Structures are given as structure tokens and as C-alpha cells.
Amino acid sequence: MAIAREAEPVGSLREVREAGLDREDLLGVYRNMKVPWWVDNGAGNLELVGTRLDAAGRFSQVFPMAWSPPGVYPSIVDIPAAGCWLLRLRTGKLAGVLVVRAIDARG
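RE: above sequence
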């Protein structure tokens, strides 16, 4: 089963402000946040299929396994619209599901 581990925070709000960044700068960091999926005994690519649960919508992405460390699939999951999404993940004989709420980062 694929597991998304929590990403490291970019810093406290005070640190962000001291660096001269504003809300849009910070949102830009999170819009393209890389998600590493850690899979024991993964094989081939990691396939992700998203199905929207609160309206019509579907998307899919494929992520290759990283060269090192083995079993890690780095990804930038590009959910096409805000809403409630069911994410199905599969690699080899392993599969998992995840339900997420995507928000519009533009406010």
C-alpha cells in the first residue's frame, strides 16, 4: 500500500514574513508540493486515478519509481479542480485508496 508521508513545513509565518514573502508566494510553494509515496515491494510505475465524489470529474497520472531509495515514487499530484476526490493508487499487485478535499489555493 502507498503511504504519503508528511512534508516538512517551509517555516513559520514569522519566518515567511521576515523573508519578504507574502500569501501568494507561500501558496505557490504548496501548489506544486512534491508528494513521496513509499511502497514496500512496489513494481513498475505508480498509477493514480482520481474520481471526483461531489461532482463530475476524473483524472489520471503515472509516476515512475525513483532510482534511490528504492520503493519511493516522487510525485506532484495535479488535482484539476477543488472538491472531494477519491484517489486510487496501484503499483504491481499493490493498491490503495485515499479520499482528499482539494481546495482552490487562489482563495
